[in-house]
Amino acid sequence: MQYLLQLISGRRRDGTLKSKRRSLVGWMFNSLWKQWRDDLTPAGKILVWCVVLTGLGAVTVQMPIYQMFCALIVLLSGAATVAVMFRPKVEIEGSLPARTTVGIETTAVLTVTNRGMFPAFDLSVAAFDVPAGLECEIDQHIVGRLDPGRSVRLPLRIKPKSRGTYQLADVRAYSLFPFGIGRAGKKGVKLDPLLVVPSFEPMERFRLSAADRYQPGGIALSSRIGESPEYIGNREYVPGEPIGKLDFRAWARTGEPVVREFQEEYFVRVALILDTHISRFLKVGTTGPRDFEAAVSLTAAVADALSSEEYVIDLFAAGPELYRFRYGRSTGNFEHVLEILASVESTSKETLDVLANTILNELNQISAVVFILTGWSPSRRALLESVREAGCEVRAFLVSGDVKLPPPTEIDAGVVRLTPAAIETGFSEGL
Predict the structure, then answer these.
(1) Any stretches that span the bilayer, and where are they (predicted)?
(2) What percent of the chain has a predicted confidence (pLDDT) above 70?
């Protein structure tokens, strides 16, 4: 199949052109395919098939089917000629919402202005050559007549099926005149990319009993509207600390620079870790298997619940790229978490070891670690045990609908196993 596509496109395996003749064949094939896919309506495709079938049966001019073949050819040719003559000359303006959620329909309102000398008939707008993760309406909103110089607002409805960033490359206005069998119109507009964030069911609370821990530079990390800083004493000045923390009276008494220390530097810091590993025998990428998408949704739900508390949360995810984002107590916004989760991809490589090195080096400052796991292995068990031994609270969730996983006796007793169906339903009372 791959060889056939290379032959049609006229390219070698390295992407270079084989010859002008073969590249011309590929261009003609792509052009005809695009016209069939985008420029013909369902009724037009049926008409073309009728022409083909009647043409195969018209072995002699004396048969009635030959007359039908000629009539269909005249109809198709006449419609194409009229469509070209009345092709609308329009200008399109509009934009997409910057962001939407998986499964939630979004609408771009496009303003279409007739810049031609003649009226435009049966006018509509649609997106063509749409990415696989989106569904777009076509031929649903039609304006019967748009006079020269007049404008009309037409909706372009899009329903995302999977998360990610999408670019609509071919959004254009077209006319279905005269018989609704073809779409005539080449004037398009380039819209900004659409970010589709994962969907999740909010939970009322997420149970986490973690103690405060000392955070160097905690005043800069904490919220301006959180707990009031409580003075707990002085300590030796560390080079690089803000001058505003210096206690000049104590400095005068001791002869050495000292700083005031506040209780605000002690607060709860939570690490939220998303396991991005899936089996190499499954499809990888943003539109990966159901288990991984459910794990992403659960991560979003937990991140949302934690953001309502006075915590500092570090989100970790390692796939083809390493993501780390801190939010909570005015250090970041939960909306940015959703943007990161919209781009996280699964991988067939074991990446949890990369995260483990980073996390283990910071356990003295971390109060609790929440694991969202997509599989189970001895290395995962060892990581959970290391975090517990450091005195951190551990909450771990194993997201999988695979019945071939190790039996419950082989999985850590503290790990909660969840199926994708349960996550999609939601945990309204919390976890």
Answers:
(1) 40-59, 65-86
(2) 80
Owner of token pair 């990888």: 284
* Preceding peptide of 289 cis, ω within 30°: no
Q: Considering only CA atoms, which of 346, 291, 349 is closest in space to residue 323?
A: 346
Q: Which amino acid is at 320?
A: P
pLDDT tens per residue across span 75-93: 999 999 999 999 999 999 9
Tens digit of each residue's pLDDT (9 = 90 or more) over 4-29: 445 444 555 444 445 555 577 777 88
Both tokens of 362, joined, read 């910071």
Q: Which DSSP state fits 288?
A: -
Q: Which CATH architecture has domain 199-431?
A: 3-Layer(aba) Sandwich (3.40)
The CATH number, out of the four listed (2.40.30.110, 3.40.50.720, 1.10.286.20, 2.60.40.10), of the domain defined by the range 90-197: 2.60.40.10
Mean pLDDT over 122-148 rounds to 93
The tokens of 429 are what? 């009372």
Instruction: Give 327's Cβ-side CA count (13 Å radius).
Output: 21
**3-class DSSP assignment, residue 200:** coil
Cβ atoms < 10 Å from Cβ of 426: 14
Q: List Cα–Cα distances, 283 to 172, 289, 404, 406, in angstroms.
A: 33, 7, 18, 22
Partner residues linked to 82 by β-bridges: none
What 240-247 contacts at long range (C-beta under 8 Å, 24+ apart), as own/partner pairs, is 245/219
Q: Does residue 245 sit in helix, strand or coil?
A: helix
**pTM for the whole thing?**
0.77
State how far the alpha carbon of 217 is from the alpha carbons of 128, 261, 267, 336, in Å.
Answer: 52, 10, 12, 23
